[in-house]
Amino acid sequence: MEERSLVVVKPDGVVRGLAGKIISRFEEVGLKIVAVKLLKVSKSLAERHYPGDREAWLRGMGEKTLENYKKFRVDAIKLLGTNDTHEIGKMIQKWLVDYIVSGPVLAFVVEGPHAVELVRKICGNTLPLLSSPGTIRGDYAFDSSYLANTGKRAIKNLVHSSGSIEEADYEIPLWFGKDELQEYQRVEEKAMR
Ligand code: GDP
Ligand code: MG
């Protein structure tokens, strides 16, 4: 049941001075911060974090975007010059890399029971327009895929968090060495479990 998840306060969150508030959300719920660092992400880390060489990931991004365009009656060919999911996925991957390297980010690892699912709940829906009040994205952002895609940029949604246990297992070693992860007890552990 004990899990770890990677959280990254993206550049918009850092320059808006929200890093402290965001980290508090996870601490308050009882999750343990086991590693933290403020860093400027290199292009090579960004490209491993958003894996442009993974066909399923690229096509998934492309499909999601096409669905969204359909909803808003945006012509993909007119806007992006293609309606191929692979090509669109590649374009979005570039937007995501440009976004995450655009300024310093605060990366941290949280640990606790159901950490991956809990962290996703606290962050809220990927699209701030749809994320509930009370979540980080719902409380502090309003961006939408329509605004982002027509502006040819990533959705500004303040935080990254691992989407599954497998994703966390892939991402944490990308961002942190084993010696950077700390072990300690939180005083709440006895009261909360
Ligand atoms: P997350 O796990 O909730 O962050 O969402 P995803 O893994 O699906 O997407 C990664 C990041 O890409 C998101 O956090 C957004 O910043 C961005 N993103 C996701 N979907 C879209 C989209 O349709 N258009 C654009 N422009 N950016 C997107
Ligand atoms: Mg994700």
From TrEMBL:
<keyword id="KW-0418">Kinase</keyword>
<keyword id="KW-0808">Transferase</keyword>
<feature type="domain" description="Nucleoside diphosphate kinase-like">
    <location>
        <begin position="2"/>
        <end position="183"/>
    </location>
</feature>
<protein>
    <recommendedName>
        <fullName>nucleoside-diphosphate kinase</fullName>
        <ecNumber>2.7.4.6</ecNumber>
    </recommendedName>
</protein>
<comment type="similarity">
    <text>Belongs to the NDK family.</text>
</comment>
<dbReference type="InterPro" id="IPR034907">
    <property type="entry name" value="NDK-like_dom"/>
</dbReference>
<dbReference type="Pfam" id="PF00334">
    <property type="entry name" value="NDK"/>
</dbReference>
<dbReference type="InterPro" id="IPR036850">
    <property type="entry name" value="NDK-like_dom_sf"/>
</dbReference>
<dbReference type="GO" id="GO:0004550">
    <property type="term" value="F:nucleoside diphosphate kinase activity"/>
</dbReference>
